[in-house]
Amino acid sequence: MAFNNETVLITGTASGIGHAAVRRFAAEGCRVIATVEREDQIDAMAAMDGVALATKLDVRLPEDWAGVVEAAGAKLGGVDILFNNAGVTVWGGLEETDMELWNRMIAINLTGQFLGCKTVVPGMLAKGKGAIVNMASVNGIRGNTKLIGYSAAKGGIVAMTRSLALDYATKGIRVNCICPGTIDTPMAQTSIDIAEDKQAAIDALNAKHPMGRLGTAEEVASVAVFLAGSDSGYVTGQAIPVDGGRSVR
């Protein structure tokens, strides 16, 4: 068994990859802490099988992180696995990206994951073990157009992951990240919906990936489960593309 009743904290669980990850980790026997952006999303998450705690979390706020981890300690004995999944994509090149947009991309996508790591690591050190899976992007390991803030944040996640992996390699904590290509989620659908020719937008996205299709949330969630469990016990500091071959084109 890759898991033994571990507690996993997953951010951004209301839809997409985070939602799929809740199902996958629960199916593996983990106790899931599901965090969401809005209060009105809590009840739906709390009703899912395997969810031991559903709560609101603004990943940008240290006090929110402290509250969630404190509740995890009181109810579930702490956090064994962190899946830093929450994030947001906003298109914009240098000329379109003002300071407000830049700061938002960095705060949610990069600082939010830094705060997650910083808050859960003390408990993991006390236990002498833990696994962290960060959500980066193919855009963090290769270039893309009109995504300067998002790409910068995701590249930062890759670098942060590698640094943390080295810092805690001898202390029982493994740190890896996932670099998805375009995944068929509500976030991807947003970019399609704003296109004048939606079918052309879908065809263009498919064509970017050598496999000729978008990935699924379940395919990414399965990699998160692998990286968090004992089956990957000798894997740390890695940025794993889940991108249908896009990163090697």
Main attributes of the structure:
single chain, 249 residues, 45% helix, Rossmann fold, alpha/beta
Structural overview:
By secondary structure, this protein is α/β, with parallel strands linked by helices. The protein folds into 2 domains: 7-180 and 218-240, NAD(P)-binding Rossmann-like Domain (Rossmann fold); 185-214, no CATH class. Helices cover 45% and strands 15% of the residues. The protein has 8 helices and 7 strands; from the N terminus they run E-H-E-H-E-H-E-H-E-H-E-H-H-H-E. It has helices at 16-27, 42-46, 62-76, 99-127, 148-168, 186-193, 198-207, 217-228; strands at 7-10, 31-36, 51-56, 81-84, 130-135, 173-180, 239-242. The chain has a 7-stranded parallel sheet with strand order 3-2-1-4-5-6-7, sandwiched between helices. Helix 5 links the parallel strand 5 (130-135) and strand 6. Helix 1 (16-27) crosses helix 8, helix 3 runs parallel beside helix 4 and helix 4 runs parallel beside helix 5. The chain starts with 6 loop residues before the first strand and ends in a 7-residue tail after the last strand.
Short précis:
The chain has about 250 residues and is of the alpha/beta class.
Largest sheet: 7 strands, parallel
Give helix % range: 40-55%
What is the residue-averaged pLDDT? 96
Strand order of the largest sheet: 3-2-1-4-5-6-7
Taking the alpha carbons of the first and last residues, their distance comes to 36 Å
Q: What series of H and E elements makes up the topology?
A: EHEHEHEHEHEHHHE
